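Make up an example, fold above all:
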Amino acid sequence: MAYQAGGQRSAPRPVPDSPEAQAYFQDYAAYLEAVPFPSVVLDHRWDVVLANTAFETLFRDVSPHPTALPGDNFLRFVLFHPDASAVLGDHESSWCLPMLACFAAAVERHGHDAGLQAIRREIAQDPIMEAAYRQGLPHWIRAVGEGAVEHDGAVRPLHHPDPRRGATECRIVGDTPRTLQDMGYTRLTMVLREPRPASAPRRPRAPRRGAGHLSVVPAPRA
């Protein structure tokens, strides 16, 4: 299902053109829509191939952005969208740094990929993001261990727009079938947990900022 926000609709992602693959994608889209939790299929650039209604609902209040809508490219959303921290709790340590680590690994595997190189240039254009990528990220991985980089099984905080959920958590489940793996795709599902007790204070929403918002390294001195 295509993601839509602020009147901007993502372009359809290319899928294998064989009739069998197209039929599989149609059926898999119907299967994905039946999943009650936010679920998304991504390619190796984190371009969104399929996403269900629960995924759209999670990000329904996200403002328009020319390059970083969550239904277009999830990595760009996490790193560059000013609304990301309003949905993704503990944005820097729970989402940004693990995604940067996965991005670094993807660059090693697909170093000449034009899409990944475009994201790499965008990171390089921001001094704080670039410092986090080059110096802060290796330090963070040494501090928390390689296991913290893995998405599958990680429990991460969220701010769900539905007030019945509010400040909650999700467990990231990587459940990619072999057919999607063979096509180069990955599926991630955010299994929502029960809302936190009402007596627990809600984490305040972080102010909207530009791309240079990481604090894993100090801002460069003037």
Summary: Helices lie at 19-33, 53-58, 74-80, 84-87, 91-109, 114-124, 127-144, 178-182. Residues 1-12, 206-213, 217-222 have pLDDT under 50 and may be disordered.
